[in-house]
Amino acid sequence: MAVEGIDFAWSKPTAAQAKAAGAHWAAGYYSTDPSKNLTHDLVAEYIAAGLPIVGVWETTTARATAGYAAGAHDAQTAAGQRTEVGLPNTAV
Fold first, then answer.
1. Where are the alpha helices (DSSP H) in 3-85?
2. Which member of 37, 45, 76, 87 has the lowest number of beta carbons within 10 Å of its beta carbon?
3. Model confidence band, residue 43 (pLDDT cutoffs 50, 70, 90)
4. Closest C-alpha to 28, from 81, 75, 89, 90
């Protein structure tokens, strides 16, 4: 059974807009571009509306080939951003 979700970056629909579009969950981003990233207020709004959020770390196309140190750095940065927006460490 498929469950519809919504994926967004710079254009951030409200939780009401997401629900009206049929979404039951949302995917948003952590990155080095603050204008693309999830925000604390948006996360709180989605959680209050009962819409779970999946956080996605994304920077550049070739970043995955930058090696272990780059991956460790990105993991730490993403975890810090996740904490800042109010998602628990159990969030996907």
1. 15-20, 40-48, 68-85
2. 76
3. very high
4. 81
